[in-house]
């Protein structure tokens, strides 16, 4: 059995990042054409576009600040001008910052997380969901985090942004489900990426001992979950927050 995304087009925000580029490759290997979003790393975006061509799908590069409604609308117009429509949106981009305690965290960091988690999700929905409604088909996939359930010391800005994002996705799932659109979230744990492989930092005994599967997950395992939710095999799943972290957090009933 194969996840078949042929004749579908997926937009991946933050596609040049450690997780984003593996998501883009995986969706492409399932047959989807890819819109590669980036904000600053044009070189990596072009490398990824060449990879997509080698895989045998089409790829379009778009640049935008995901915290700007104006720029995301311009991105939508750029995509439309190429005659493309978006079937799958993967909201993966997020602003990075230095974590510290609430008493020491800069107020600007809370704003940046709200903008890149909550408002990015709102802007993407406003930009792409109306056309999905017209076609009676769509997949909205948000990349959340296990931190949204952990609430550990030092995580406050990130957790606040991602918990706000969770609210947007759950409400959106109820608002657009009647149109054949699914809206789901994936919550990675501390994930092994190419950066870890290059730096030989794949393992952390202190973290791994808390995980029931006793290891860190990989970027490919996160991308596999994205591809599944994007496919028709997940056609009756919506409103879900799915941890992909070896059981490190477990939503309760």
Strand order of the largest sheet: 3-2-1-4-5-6-7
- Give the CATH H-level superfamily: NAD(P)-binding Rossmann-like Domain
What is the helical fraction, as a range of percent? 40-55%
Mass-distribution shape: globular
Low-confidence stretches: none
Structural class: alpha/beta
DSSP E strands, number: 7
Instruction: Provide the succession of SSEs.
Output: EHEHEHEHEHHEHHHE
The assigned CATH architecture is: 3-Layer(aba) Sandwich
Radius of gyration, in angstroms, nearest whole number: 17 Å
How would a textbook summarize the main sheet? 7 strands, parallel
Mean pLDDT rating: 97
Cα end-to-end separation: 31 Å
How would you summarize what this structure contains?
GO terms for molecular function: 3-oxoacyl-[acyl-carrier-protein] reductase (NADPH) activity. The protein has 9 helices and 7 strands. With 253 residues, it is α/β, with parallel strands linked by helices.
Mind sketching the topology for me?
Elements: E1 9-12, H1 20-29, E2 33-38, H2 42-55, E3 59-63, H3 69-81, E4 88-91, H4 107-135, E5 138-143, H5 147-150, H6 156-176, E6 181-188, H7 194-199, H8 205-208, H9 219-230, E7 241-244
Parallel strand pairs: 1-2, 1-4, 2-3, 4-5, 5-6, 6-7
Helix pairs in contact: 1-2, 1-9, 3-4, 4-6
GO molecular function, one term: 3-oxoacyl-[acyl-carrier-protein] reductase (NADPH) activity
EC number: 1.1.1.100
Pfam families: adh_short_C2 (PF13561)
